[in-house]
Backbone:
């Protein structure tokens, strides 16, 4: 299995989204984090199945919540760069 490193910006993205969802409905943020965790586990098992969207950056879309997980694979390590709502400009991760 691949080693996984979640960059601080990506952790912040997830935390902010969870808070936003919990503000909308109690427990919804926790459900978001569970969906996110499941998708990250899927990425870790087989990262190459996800589409390359720019140079070596891949994106995995979550189910139920409109979020993309942007990541790169280098040797045996996966780096998660950003977790962004699909309506946001995906070029945000370029500055990270």
Residues:
């Amino acid at each position: 299995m691949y080693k996984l490193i979640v960059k601080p910006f990506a952790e912040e993205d997830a935390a902010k989204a969870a808070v936003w969802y919990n503000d909308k409905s109690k427990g919804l943020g926790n459900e978001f984090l569970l969906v996110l965790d499941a998708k990250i586990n899927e990425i870790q098992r087989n990262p190459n199945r996800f589409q390359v969207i720019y140079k070596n950056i891949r994106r995995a879309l979550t189910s139920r919540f409109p979020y993309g997980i942007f990541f790169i694979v280098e040797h045996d390590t996966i780096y998660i760069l950003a977790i962004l709502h699909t309506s946001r400009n995906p070029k945000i991760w370029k500055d990270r």
Observations:
- Residues 18 and 31 are 8 Å apart (CA to CA).
